[in-house]
Structures are given as structure tokens and as C-alpha cells.
Amino acid sequence: MNSTNPDGLGRRGFFKRAGLVGAVAAGAPVLASGRADAADLDLGLDLDWLFGRRYQWVVGDHHTHSQYSYDAMYTIDRIAAGAREHGAKWVVFTDHGHATHEKSSVEPTSRDVLAAQRRHPDLLLWQGMEWNVPGAEHATLFFQAGREQASVLREFERSFDWRLTGSESSSPEHETLALNGLRWLAEQERTRRIHAPVVLINHPLRNGRVSPHELRNYRDTAPGIVIGMEGAPGAQADGFPKPQGNGGARGGYANNPGANSWPGFPAEAYRTFGGWDWTTAKVGGLWDSLLAEGKPWWITRNSDSHYNRGDQLVRPAVPDGWYEQTGKYPDPVDSGVPQLSAPYADFYPGEFSRTVVGVRRPGFEGVLEGLRAGRIWLSHGDLVQQLEAGVHGDGDCATFGGRLRVRRGSTVTVVVSAVTAYRPNGSGSVPRLGRLDVIAGPVTGPAADRDTMTAPGTRVVESFTPSRGYAGRRVTFKHTFRNVREPFYVRVRGTDGNRQVAGGIEPAMDVIGQANPYEDLWLYGNPTFVDVY
After folding, report:
1. What is the pLDDT of residue 48?
2. Which residues form the Polymerase/histidinol phosphatase N-terminal domain (predicted)?
3. Which of 68, 224, 359, 377 is the Cys-Cys partner for 95 at CB 3.0 to 4.6 Å?
């Protein structure tokens, strides 16, 4: 295994710039193969405990669409069956907010979700919605409300969706309406009308409509409800070169600033990087600026399934105005021909994009608790079969989304382990893990400027390149922070190494019309915070 310092910064230089004054980091990479390799590391630690193996790690998807969306076609049951076929264990149905949806679709969706749950008892299925956030763009919303599920969703949609309230444009008044919607959810939870509401901001910079201050306002208005954002959009198949020659962009990120876009975003923010949103892909960027405040802000992945690439199903032709009259499209029919052209830009849940959540106990409660805790790692194209991360110090440990509390001057050890792919993914080839990176940055507290979108102290502190030929084996390494003086966070990412910026290791901007998603694979883990006292 090779260890590199890609920034050209010494470890002492990183900590000096990051504000962790007096700390010295020492990376000690280790490669071990086979299932028994963890014991070979001889770290003096219980690695089952360190890696959080007390959790069950389950794949799921929080953003899918059905025939009850004005721009989709699948039955609820077909999406559920597709999720099962690709290893997903939980799915949220999030059809678009729309006047017709609120009027005609919510209750029928509830019936179909319950029927699909009976047919697929091994899955966990939620009915939610894709909320058109006033003054912004879209967000996943779901919760549990028992028999009131449909009525509460309709009430929220009628009161707080910009398609129904005329509040699409960016303005302070519309931003306030969005925050009122979050306060409403919090009140419904407080009074036990609903349980465990979750909001995740979808494709945050596809149109540049969600400013940094809005993200902070959402989070701070409803902590524990607004838990984060899509680190990468769905619609990843849109980047494939199309047979007719007019290829799209991964996630639909082929846009430019519009009238409602926040003016502070640079032009590159409207593109994906290795399929990931600029907010996530840029080290020291917007995501890191949120983490530097020391507050939870998690990233997720999803399919955004509307029309799935390679599927033979097609939507029957209907007269104009059909959806507006019925709130539902007819069931799709089998064409006998794999569909590769637009609008077939998506994948089934679990087929390409994976959100893997660590749960303490089975069932809906376990997934909700794991999501809210940020116990999540994410990957594209089955880059690895398994990812584990443990941060250890002062006799305690934490994994993704956790917090470790240590005394000033302590040593903190990060151990990362992955089981590499051993079977072909959807492209027909076995992906190869090219590199794993440890990224760390100081926790500096609340940002004075709510539109801050940089974290200058955040760096890649160590990169590790597994040896070739380790298909289906475990690779493990550790990185040590010594004499820690100030709070910080640490997170992990990985790549197949196929595409990155010239002369560096950062993801390269995707090329519109020429972005086969299987040729540029990345994974990300959510951060672990280290508090120092």
C-alpha cells in the first residue's frame, strides 16, 4: 500500500493551518487481506466495537417516484420489486407536490403503499412526498402518522408547497414560509400527531436555488428534522452518451444561473464532479463549511427513479390533461425493448446509488434512528461491498455520524476498512477501489456570515492506495492524530481513480453528454466529530 500526502503539506503544516495547534499526525497505513485481517492489525482494539459492527448496515432509498407523479410512470409495487432485486431494504415514495397530487393522488398512493408492503413484507416502505420548498427547490419529506398519513401529508402540501401556495420565487417572504413549514412539522411531532419527520434537501445545486444561509436556516429551525442533503443527485444515467447523440448530464446538472438562483455560486457549482454535487465534492467547500460549525449535516444518495435506463417498461400514450384529470398515469406496459434514450435517466433503488444506514434494531424505527444519527455511508456502482470507519481515543470510539470526546493532548486513531468488489456491477465489470482518502478539518463554531461556503482548514490528510488484485478482500489502514488540542471532524471518501483533476486527486467536473457513470465511481462516509475538553 502506498501513502501519499496529495496537498504537498506536511502533517504538522496541516494542523497548523487547520487551527489544531500543537498537534502532530502520524499516518500508519496497513493493508491486510482476507476476513481475518482485522486481527492482523494488532491495534490493541476490539475492531467489532471500533467499527460499529453492533449495527446492521442496510441499503435504502429516500427519493423515488411513481405513476402518481406528473413526470413518472412506475407502479408503487414495481419500484418496491426493483428495490428488492437490487438489494435495497427500505424505500420512500416521494411523488412531486402538485395541485393535482394534493387533490387526487395522496390517498390512492397510501393504499398502494400498504398493498405493496403486504406483498413485500421484507421491505420497509414509507409514503412521503417531494416538497417544493418555498423560495427554493425540492426536498424529501416523510414521517410516520399511522392512519392519518395521507391526511397529514395533504395538509402540509396544501399549506407549504410552492406549487399550491404561489411561493416559488426567491424572496425573504417565501423563505419564511419554508421555515414555517418546518416549524409546523416540529409542532406536529411535539404533539405526537406525527412521528420522526425527516427532511433532506434534494439535488441542492442543480439550479443553484438553495443558498448557504437557507441550508443553515433549515437546519437550525428544525434540528433533528432537517438532517442534511443529497450528496449526489439521482438521475445518474442521464450522463450516458445517448444513441441519438444528445447526451445529458449526470443528475440533470447541465444548468446555468436563473432568475431565482443565489448569485454567490460559481459557474462550476451547477455541474457534478464524479457524479457528486459541488457542495459535497469540493474539499473545504460548502458541506465542510457546515461541518466546521460542529453541527450535524448528513449527506445521502438516492435513485430519483422516474424512468430507469435499460428498462423495457414504457408509459402508454394518453390524451393531454390525463394526469390533471386523474392524478395518476396508467400502468406501464412491456415494450420488449430496453429503453436507452431520454427520459430514461434513472436507476432502480440500489441499482447504482446506495445509501447504507447502520441500524441498532430492525424495522422503521431502526432506519429512522440511523438516518437521524448520520450513521450512513454512500457509494456509486458497487465500488466496495462494505465500508467501515472507527475513530478511537481515550478508551472510547465512534463511527459515521458519531461524536468522540477526548481530553486535550490525547491521541486519536482513525481506522478505515473496506471489502473490495468481487462481482460485476451494472456495467458488467468488477469495479476496482483505487484510493481511500482521510479528510479532516477544524471545528471553528457558528459562521459569522450565514452564506459562508468555504472551510479553509479542511484538507485531505492522508491517501491510501490498495494493492491491485484484491477483489473481494478486505483492505484496512489507520491514521493517527497525536497531541490533539482543538475539536475537529474527520470523514472518508474513496474512488476508482479513473478520473480526477490533472496533476491532483480531486474529482473532475463531469462532461455533459460524455459521462458514463460507471467510468467514474466515488464513495463517501459521513463525518465523525472529535470534541476536545
Report:
1. 81
2. 60-135
3. 68
